[in-house]
Amino acid sequence: MLDVFSPSDEQLPLLERMAADAKSFWKRGWLVGTCGNLSVKVNEQPLEMLVSASGLDKGALQTSDFLKVGPAGKILAPTPHKPSSEIGVHEVVYRRTQARACYHVHSVWNNLASQLFREQGSVMVENVEMLKGLAGFGLRDTLRLPIVDNSEDMTRLARNVDGGLNPKIPGVLVFQHGIYVWGRDQAEARRHVEILEFLMEYACRLRSYKQ
Ligand SMILES: [Zn+2]
Fold first, then answer.
1. How far apart are CA 95 and CA 89, in angstroms?
2. Cα torsion angle, 83, 185, 182, 92, sign
3. How many angstroms separate the CA atoms of 153 and 171, rounded?
4. Model's pTM, two decimal places?
5. Which of 9, 33, 40, 189 has the fewest CB atoms within 10 Å around its CB?
6. From ligand 1's centre to the CA of 152, what distance in Å?
């Protein structure tokens, strides 16, 4: 049996925060059935990430339920766990943006939004006060949250996200799968998840009321 990955003193609070954020998302129904994954970047060059292990209940994550991985999900410290299979997408986010935290949740509203707005290729939201909660956005900015194709091939999924990602928008919707959201730190990533989930629900409801 391998030793469990043991975080440094600086890394431990990051893991505690990720477990707490995961629990909060799980309570809201955004991480049910062991879905979703969370990571933080702890080194830029070479890339090092702390990521949630695959297949665990996101409402009950412990600090021992994370791994340290490098590019292509290479495990950098002994662990009995497997990294999330979607780690390649997190790598794309860290390569393309200034993010230091990336959270991926599956919610009913973000799945529905990806279906309802698929033809447009993005979910457009404008003149909504909550837009101001997204870094770099003001009330007069228009959000066009990109929607990309899903794939069970993780290399292709990472490529799809890479193709749709706009570094000025802190999220990408994957068709009928979920949303990847990021921020310059964990607090910002969490805020962006909450804001984008609000806006996806708003966009879906607005559309249904207008029909
Ligand atoms: Zn997923």
1. 10
2. negative
3. 20
4. 0.94
5. 9
6. 10
CA of 31 to the centre of ligand 1 (A): 9
At 59-108, the pLDDT tens digits run 999 999 999 999 988 888 878 888 778 899 999 999 999 999 999 999 99
Distance 210 CA to ligand 1 centre (A): 30
Which residue has 């193709």 as its token pair?
163
Ligand 1 centre to CA of 120 (Å) is: 22
CA–centroid distance, residue 193 to ligand 1 (Å): 14
For ligand 1, an ion, list residues with CB under 5 A: 178
% of the chain exceeding 90 in pLDDT: 85
Q: Judge contact between 151 and 158, C-beta under 8 A.
A: no
Task: Calculate how far, in angstroms, residue 137's C-alpha sits from the geometric centre of ligand 1.
Answer: 26
Q: What share of the chain is helix, strand, coil (3-state, %, to 5)?
A: 40, 20, 40
Q: How far is the CA of 131 from the centre of ligand 1 (A)?
A: 24
What is the token pair recorded at 129? 């006060």
Is the separation of the CB atoms in 100 and 44 below 8 Å? no
